[in-house]
Design goal:
Elements (H helix, E strand, L loop, with lengths): L2 E2 L6 E2 L9 E2 L5 H5 L6 E4 L15 H14 L3 E4 L6 H11 L6 E7 L2 H8 L5 E7 L2 H6 L5 H17 L3 E7 L6 H13 L4 E6 L6 H12 L5 E6 L6 H10 L4 E4 L13 H11 L1 H7 L5 H11 L17 E2 L2 H9 L17 E2 L8 H10 L6 H17 L4 H15 L16 H11 L13
Parallel strand pairs: 4-5, 4-11, 5-6, 6-7, 7-8, 8-9, 9-10, 10-11, 12-13
Antiparallel strand pairs: 1-2, 2-3
The structure holds zinc ion (ZN).
InterPro entries: 2-IPM_HCS-like, AIPM/Hcit_synth_CS, Aldolase_TIM, DRE_TIM_HCS_fun_bact, Homocitrate_synth, LeuA/HCS_post-cat, PYR_CT
Keywords: Amino-acid biosynthesis, Lysine biosynthesis, Magnesium, Manganese, Metal-binding, Transferase
Cofactor: Mn(2+); Mg(2+)
Length: 450
Amino acid sequence: MCGTDGNNGVSANSVANGAFRPSNPYQPVGDFLSNVGRFKIIESTLREGEQFANAYFTTETKIEIAKKLDAFGVDYIELTSPAASEQSRLDCEAICKLGLKAKILTHVRCDMRDARMAVETGVDGLDVVIGTSSFLREHSHGKDMVYIKKTAIEVIEFVKSKGLEVRFSSEDSFRSDLVDLLSLYQAVDKVGVHRVGIADTVGCASPRQVYDLVRTLRGVVSCDIETHFHNDTGCSIANAYCALEAGATHIDTSVLGIGERNGITPLGGLMARMVVTSPEYVKSKYRLDMIKEIEDLVAEAVEVNTPFNNPITGFCAFTHKAGIHAKAILNNPSTYEILNPADFGLTRYVHFASRLTGWNAVKTRVAQLGLVMTDDQVKAVTAKIKALADVRPIAIDDADSIIRSFHMDLGDRAPVKQNRDAKQNGEAEQIKQEAKQNGERVPVEVEIGA
Ligand SMILES: [Zn+2]
């Protein structure tokens, strides 16, 4: 599919998923490789996530998670190997029977016995993996590169003969010998593997290393490139992003990033990154408003809390506190927000119960409470709130009480009062609904956020 923009003659390259990326003679080489506007997600909560220390998923929970991920729009759902246990095999079959839109994969060792069992479960494809670093070759499976290459080709040809998709990945790719790795990937590309995988199994890679390796690999194979990043050094989202910039096509994620040790690239965090880079692609493909319910479901299943600083859903992700920030946010949310909470079905909150508050935030709160004051009166009550907040931490109710009693004391000096009370008559909810209907960039959060 090719197209030409009639206005400026800029051509658009043919890309997967019907998305276009503009090109012109002055773009740097990197932009031609970049897939930031046309990537696919391989969601591995039900494989990598099952390796999380707290994870124990019943069949019902697995099905519930799979259905939600499917509704969200992930391209693939990866499941634990059926060779892991009898229940794992049964769960794999049960999820395959759901008839989801997402393709179902299972993750198996590069071993004919595992591959034979996996192809009988009804999956759409196999993610085949073997360790290639000298550490793993010496201390884990004990096989050399000649054996690995021979077995890989045998397994790939077998899976393809069954009409299924197959990915071949090394494990611990960033501590594997580059020449070994490239010649192995070249060999599996030649026999028609659908994807090769790069896995930062130990979480050691930096974004620049990722960019270099993926870009080098992009020049060696013609198949898709899947990437898998552990978060031991906090780089999992940045590494995924750099991999896409360098030409990777698929990113592995898990909900809340759960996985072995401290996990992998989180689905929500990756969405936060990518919606900033490629808003149209991300918003048209993924149900961003489902992130919170999916995270809540998984958090409950594995008995953890969503981290306070989690992208998008951390409790303070859209809370603005300092007076200067609050004033600007109330005028135009883009001043201090790169993400729009409305895109995720969420609302922002301007914190007004603190010593850092400013009168603009308090003015908004006064209006939410259905009260009317002049600016000078709002400034006076703001001074009272700040004075108390200097003495002790205050709650929203404390600040509201100060506002209400100040307003009552105004008596005749108060401007004409609107006969409504946000808390009592459900006004807050009504304003919230109106705000949602008005679409994005509604300047004032009305949720109390107790
Ligand atoms: Zn992993």
